[in-house]
Amino acid sequence: MRYVILALLSGIFPIVLLAQEQTDSLQVQNQILDSLFIAETENAPGKPKVLHAEPLFIDLIRDLGARKGEKEWNMGLGMTDKGAYNQYTALVEYEFAPVNRLGLEFELPFSIYLQNGKARDSVPKTKLNSIKVASQYTFWVSDKKQTSLALGMIYEMEFNEFSRYREARLFRNHLYNPFIVAAKRWGQNFHTLIYTGPFLHAPSSFAVLDNWAFNANIHYMISGTRNFLGLEMNQDFGRDYRKTVLRPQIRVGITDRLLVGIVSGIPLRAKDERLSSFLRIIYEPKVHGARRSHS
């Protein structure tokens, strides 16, 4: 019996050692891939840049520390249960960096409303929400602290509903959203980001504070890729209300240039909003002289 046990142990030990070696080898390989991917982003020609995970629902105008020539197309599709009706949203967005660290964005967001079994007059009208123009400048990048800070401004010229184009003005309001972004990468995989600022609307010649937004994010970027898992927390504070929505999300690289993001919305403090979902398709055209090797 003793010889049988020794024989079994002598057969098991090599298997255990081999499995441990393979695990260690995989960890080393992932660390190498992480280092290569981060280096590819941060050590490319141009000013210093730190790799940060970008939230999918309230996204940035451009990568923090953007380099001249970077550009990106986005298409978004969403659905929100509003109780009395469903809101379907769609957007088309183009963002680019004309110079180092400066990002510009143009966006057309649409909203379609469909009755959900209640009074028809409670359903808003379908419309092109606005023409949105935005800018963002990354004023501080620290390689040592793996931190970036940026300031930005979003301007929206809001439209009336399609059905009111003949009886009312085409544009009904101006909306301004100055904001600040602070992002930090912890090691190679974990990313945090805060995005906050007020919303001011100007129905006439002066602007009025409407609400304040505070968005906090944490993401885990999977080794050697641009894929990530994360949580986005969107909070809005107004005079008479407070809304908090948690948005768990994933981003997956389909090709070197194409990524898809999927977001769920879970309201914690929102009287007029229930569960929601959002899909973002991201296409990054090739930048002359640059390359990407990981998806």
What does this structure look like?
By secondary structure, the protein is mostly beta strands. The protein has a single domain, classed as Beta Barrel (Porin). It has one helix at 2-42, and strands at residues 71-81, 85-99, 102-115, 127-128, 130-142, 147-159, 171-186, 190-201, 208-221, 228-237, 242-253, 258-269, 276-283. A twelve-stranded antiparallel barrel has the order 1-2-3-5-6-7-8-9-10-11-12-13. Strand 5 and strand 6 (147-159) form a beta hairpin. The radius of gyration is 24 Å and the shape is globular.
The biggest sheet amounts to: 12 strands, antiparallel, barrel
Mean residue pLDDT: 83
> Might you state the CATH topology name?
Porin
Percent strand equals over 45%
Tell me the domain tally. 1
Total number of helical segments? 1
Give a short overview.
The chain has 295 residues and is mainly β.
Topology:
Blueprint: H1 2-42, E1 71-81, E2 85-99, E3 102-115, E4 127-128, E5 130-142, E6 147-159, E7 171-186, E8 190-201, E9 208-221, E10 228-237, E11 242-253, E12 258-269, E13 276-283
Antiparallel strand pairs: 1-2, 1-13, 2-3, 3-4, 3-5, 5-6, 6-7, 7-8, 8-9, 9-10, 10-11, 11-12, 12-13
Key terms:
Porin, about 15% helix, single chain, 13 strands, mainly beta, about 300 residues, 12-stranded antiparallel beta barrel, disordered C terminus
